[in-house]
Amino acid sequence: MAVTRSARTEWNGDLVSGSGQTTFETxxxxxxxxxxRARAEAAEGKTSPEELIAAAHATCYSMAFSNILxxxxxxxxxxxxxxxVDFSTDGGAQISExxxxxxADVPGISEEDFAKAAQEAKEGCPVSKALAGVxxxxxxxxxxxxx
Length: 147
Known about the structure:
- The protein is α+β, with helices and mostly antiparallel strands.
- The model has no long low-confidence stretch (mean pLDDT about 95).
- It folds into 2 domains: about 5-40, no CATH class; about 50-145, 2-Layer Sandwich (GMP Synthetase, Chain A, domain 3), CATH 3.30.300.
- The strands form 2 sheets. Strands 1-2-3 form a 3-stranded antiparallel β-sheet.
- The radius of gyration is 17 Å and the shape is elongated.
- Helix content is about 30%, strand content about 35%.
- Helix 2 packs across helix 3 (about 110-125).
- One of its GO terms (molecular function) is peroxidase activity.
- This is Osmotically inducible protein OsmC.
- One of its GO terms (biological process) is response to oxidative stress.
- It holds the Pfam family OsmC.
């Protein structure tokens, strides 16, 4: 069974001086302003495709990781995932790198099993798979601590 989620963006004007609004249609969580400046320079209270990708990737990774840990008999108490998405205009506009930074509290798991599960989640998360065209997706996963 497939589940569809939708968002919509209305853009006005050209790329550099124009602006738009992205609306989360399915959840009805809100409408968010977007501009080229927010994407390529300073956010200034606006979002960007890369920030939205970071949110999706951090959420998807956390869900995948929690499931892998639970299935292996190590239910996590906490998973804190930060996704950093780099947007570059060098050589054409592109997402040049994504860094997943993960800190988790998982009682009774060895460092080795933790690292294996973390990597499995990175490779198996549907958003990671969707972003496979990104040149570099790195993972820094550690037991304990915070981001």
